Amino acid sequence: MNLRSLAACACAAALLAAGASACSSHSAGTGTSTSTSTSSEGGTLTIQGDSGNPTLVENFNPFQPSTELHGTYLIYAPLETVSSINGSYTPFLATGYKFTSPTTLVYTIRSGVKWSDGTAFTPADVVFTFNLLKKYAALDANGVWSQIGAVSASGNDVTFTFKAPNVPFAATIAQTPIVPEHVWSSISNPVTFTNTHPVGTGPYTLKTFAPTQYTLTKNALYWDASKIAPTSVVFPAQATSQSTNQLEVSEGQFDWSYTYLPDVKATYVDRDPSTNQYWFPPGGTIGLFLNLTQAPYNNVNFRQGISLALNRATIAQKAVNGYMKPASTSGIILPNEQQWLDPSLPGQGVVSQNHGAAMAAFARAGYTSQGGKLMGPNGQATMTIVLPNSFTDWAAAATEISSELGQIGIKVNLDEPQYAQYAQTTQAGTFNAAIGGFGGTGIPFNDYNLTLNSAYAAPVHTPTVNNFERFNNAGVNRALATLAAATNPSAQQQATDRLETMMYQTVPVVLLYYGGSWGLFSTKHFTGWPSASDPYTLPTNYNYSLLTVVTHLVKA
Amino acid sequence: MRYILRKVTLFIVTLWAAITLNFILPRLMPGSPVDAALGKLASAGVPITNAEKAAVEAQLGAPHTSIFVQYGDYLRNIATLRFGTSFSFPSQTVALTIGKALPWTVVLVGATTVFAFVIGTLLGVYAGWHRGRFADSSVTIGATFFGAFPPFWLGLLLLYWLAFKFGWFPLKGGYSPGTTPNWSLSFLGDALDHSVLPALTLAITTLSGWVFGMRNNMINTLGEDYVTFAEANGLRSRTVALLYAARNALLPNVTAFGLMLGAVVGGSVLVEGIYSYPGVGNLLYLAVTNHDYPLMQALLLVFTLSMLVAIFVVDLLYPRLDPRVRSAT
Amino acid sequence: MTIITSVPPPQAPGTAGEVRIGAASAVPGPLRFIGRALRTLWSNGKARTGMIILGLIVLAAIFAPLIAPHSPTATNFQPYLGPSATNLLGTTGNGQDVFSQLIFGARVSLIVGVCAGALATLVAVTIGLISGYRPGVIDEVLSFVTNLALVIPALPLMIILAAYLQGRSVWTIVLVVAFTSWATGARVIRSQTKTLRTRDFVTSAVFSGERLPRIVFRDILPNMTSLVAASFLAAATAAVLAEASLEFLGLGNPSTVSWGTILFAAQQQNALLTGQWLMVFAPGLAIVLLMVSFTLINFGVDALSNPRLREK
User: Fold this and answer.
1) Neighbours of chain A (3+ CB pairs under 8 A)
2) Which residues pair with A152 in a beta bridge?
3) Across chain A, what does the average pLDDT equal?
4) Which of C93, C254, C267 faces A389 most closely, judged by CB atoms?
């Protein structure tokens, strides 16, 4: 065969190969091509948010935190959902709860509920679920059994007995997904169980699953089925490239998306002003965490100096383009938790930049300005701030912080490794200063407890995620214990006020600006989305807020 | 025979060294896979607590045995093709994850490489034959320019203009969301539609390697006596170019094939990431960011093995193509 | 082992690069040598274009503070702006001027390209010389290591190494890139050394009792200069691309100003979404031009060594 025909053959073969790009014959999917047609009833809801990688893995095991499909929250109903904005409860499998004593919590279970396979749901399923978490500690991602000692059912009630008073923990118990005893009791290892045929009490069941998209359909046996608007919910997988996801959101492919968008008015709202809307409420607080085991950060005056030297408005502007406001240093998220705010705090706890006051605080800590540098007993004050390089708003905030602190004479360096390395150094307590997140659970006690409780302050080199800045204050511990045991609202308010004042005065963390919750909606098919005028929950679709919102929607 | 024996020994020893290196490298990375998994949750805004971390640790089963025990297990598992369970996809074995992604990359990379090889070689012959004239200059300047394109840059621009602005091609994926891979004609058409942009990106950026290689070899070959002799005998220049010069000039390009494969696979890591193409390049990038040791090891092994096999095959083939080497063994 | 470049693949046995006849054992004074080389390069049209482009980029890098209208890191502009009179290429999501970043970015890209290329070539020459000169165990071992380095895919190795090395500076990138791209050059140099080793003038030098360093530096190396130069230019080209790729993936230091980090920022802040495609186009084009200039000069170097490649 001469070279010419060889070349021609190769050419043709290449074109043919390109033209017939074969596909994988493997598939984990249970269904075939899915059509997302709207039915006569409620229509189809399309939600963006599940990570593809780039294909989805079919596993609706609700206890595996790192691989959860968001649809799991629509399939498995909990006792109640708790709004992450203001901590209010929405009943689901339970109709209500009360504390009969500071350590006894009783939930009243709804009757007449059926599992999606027709079996009746009973309080025994609730007891079974919690005992399952006890038996397999790996499933207990929220640490339920570190707080409760026993769970039992009698009649329509399920009783939880706590080891020590912890009233706010009811919210964590409320949001534990309940699984059916008649299915899960025969599973040999729930920790590694790949759940492809989920049986739940939620408003939706699994209809089809394809590698890049899955569809849920309305559960006819749901006790409140007539009030649920969408007949089917579609979850397409996201792209691996975040910028492609933003492009798709901008094109209007989804009813509900959760992603940061730069210049949201131009890139989203203006594309279809009659239906596209957004709501970016604060969902947590971003702060500068100083390592409290190191000098001079263990000196409260030095921390006050840092806090007073920063211009939070500028930092927020640079970090998130003005979407978010400067945070209240009380640890309360405004305006979400306005009702908890201590009115005696000046300026709602928001600290403005004040160079004079900052220098006075530094002076009390033994640091004075000499020749443009802030000098102390060991020479010039220096700081290395660590943060993950993929969090661009944190990076912008840190850059601004370093320039502002540079102006008063502190030399600041930035260290931006990948997240895993950042986690390692912060958890081990070997960092100098770090950007991190504070709060965001919607419940003040949980927010404070996770960051301030010295029980979590492990020694340096022993990793801890909670209280990694190693704060240790007996007064704060006492206040936390009081709040944990407080059952009536006025006692809770008093204890919360005390914690707010302590945050404001001792500055364990220099709180900077609020972290945003990026809700993007379209009213083309459904209305009833959370918004500034109707803030019933945060617009996050990766936790039980998803259930709260979807059951709240009405057809447009 | 000795030649083959030498090549086989070299293959096996290199394979062992590559396997061991693949074992060591992922473990040198700071940070554990648990932290990486928590990172994913953190960037989604989920508050991370000690309990959450303990649960993730239990779920991923982070290793606690000594490194030598791990190495022994590793070798044993490779021999039995058991690569374990990935940290990013705990419900799916690594073998299955790679198995689902590999065909996509093989087709994308394979089709692109064959296409670029053929077109590039032909262009190289053309340029070498017309050396010094306008045809040569335009081909070389063009190839230089396009060959310098960073694949991710070209990918982004093509994505923006052709997919986002004009909407001619899909923005992401290997196939439309909601469809399951099958052999139907409509699916193949859908897959083709989704593969145009990634293939175009890879093809344009790898073309130049072939062009230059072939051109240089052509020029060297053209100086050889037998070519002058053929011309003097009055053979048509096209015949001389293809039958005499090109055929001999092709040989070094064939040896380069195995090496170029590695380069294209490397380029596909970025291109697949930009287009969310469900191939192994994308998997590797995810594995590295997630500190997913089992997946990373298996992927590096797959890449290295395919390169080794390609080079090995070429080494075996070479004596067939070049009698000078055959007689020397 | 380089990422896609225009490096000619290693040549087939029997067609080793030509050695200038007559230059066998006489070594011209180094300055005269360089002068002659530059003149020959300049006479080659492609190399001339390459040198002009490279010269412009180098000038831009040196005089960056004078040419760039603003500071590259100051964040005082409105973010996400399109091109305007004050901001020729628009602004980033942090409010920085892209055009100034482009000018200053030339410094890092040049330094990394040249340094990484030089380091890789140094390693390649050392290993190639040793391996090619002494057949036997040393050669077998070094060839094996070279082949191993060739077989491991470059980009994945670079990603892993960059993530491992904790010093997040430009020099980390230089080390990582050099470490992963020496193998191709080593192979080429080894085969050339082997060929030269068998040449008469080297054999006679060995027999006349010349010491090893003298043989290497006076007889072998000078006859490989163009090969080494070509190797260096190819390595530098690959290094520029590798640096951009690593920065793009976020494995470098996001606070340095280089063409790769502009692309990283463009991707993170989704310049395509805000319509700022120029922010993606411009730094990429700059990278392309730098790589092209190296390659064009390399054409001239090829012509130096292989008279058949010289333009008529």
Assistant:
1) B, C
2) A159
3) 87
4) C254
